Amino acid sequence: MATLISTHAWDQFIKTVPNAHILQTSAWGKFKSQFGWSPSYLIEQDCGTQVLFRTLPLGYSIAYIPKGPLGKNWNQLWPGIDQLCKQKHTIMLIVEPDYWEPLPETVFSQWLEGFSPNPHTIQPRRTIFVDLSPDEETILAAMKQKTRYNIRLAERKDVIVCETQDLQSFYDMMCTTGQRDGFALHNLTYYKKAYEHFAPLGQCTLLQAEYQGTPLAALMVFAYQEQAWYFYGASTNAERNRMPTYALQWQAMRWAKAKGCTSYDLWGVPDFDQETLEADFSSRSDGLWGVYRFKRGFGGVLKRSAPAFIHVYRPLLYRAYAWLTNRQKPSQA
Known about the structure:
Elements lengths: L2 E3 L1 H8 L11 H7 L4 E8 L2 E9 L5 E6 L3 E2 L6 H10 L2 E7 L8 H4 L7 E3 L7 E6 L4 H6 L3 H12 L2 E5 L3 H15 L6 H11 L5 E8 L2 E11 L2 E9 L8 H15 L4 E3 L8 H7 L8 H7 L5 E4 L3 E5 L2 H12 L7
Parallel strand pairs: 4-6, 12-13
Antiparallel strand pairs: 1-2, 2-3, 3-4, 3-5, 6-15, 7-15, 8-13, 8-14, 9-10, 10-11, 11-12
Helix pairs in contact: 2-8, 6-9
């Protein structure tokens, strides 16, 4: 049976797993512990997982495995995870595996007894991956012509991208973006803690695009092993003709590439197939459609992740919890 291990032991284990997702790192667990979650680490032979537990009233909890488990033979982990969930009076366990469609049946068929696919995921299912392994000129050449033009236009129009620690300015821009585009936001403390947990590890930076000293756009990019993720980004309504967001995104890719990353996850586009996305992006601006119109230009590959899987321990409490949370607008990552 899988056994609980220390944070240090988990850190040693995850180093041996190629392409582990940053949401499975202990740094992510420590970060989420600032906001009501408690991480536990279980391992059995060549597989393991970080499980996040959130305490609810009356001693109950919910459990969440983001972008895990890691390794193979997940069925070895289940008895230990199940026992831990029962000890913590868990209402439900949600698992969002770090796999892309089409799903490998050999991984899922053995492990998912007692689980059912959940149509709602916490993290976005469809995203765009940019290959960072070629040289910069090749990466630029793979982009849409208009995107390359906008990157160079921003430079000609004196947009400067620099690293910053001004989280207040970033949050102010996030609020502007949320109001303009209808996005859900975390609070300022959330973004500050994310930066404080990952920047000292060299796994995060905050980039800001400026014109004559005035902030126009900013983003927070994360990196772990050979992968990078664009989790949070924002812009003001000023000087948008200078294309600051294009210069900003390109500089984030260059930062990730310099750290040895070979892929850049643009993190979230509308959950439709490519044919639908390409047919409708020019006429739709609701939801993430405007985001897709922007991200598609960077020349990446559209991918769709595995669905969430759910194991319900207490059906009545689960239905009550689901009703309450479905009334709230979720925030990703």
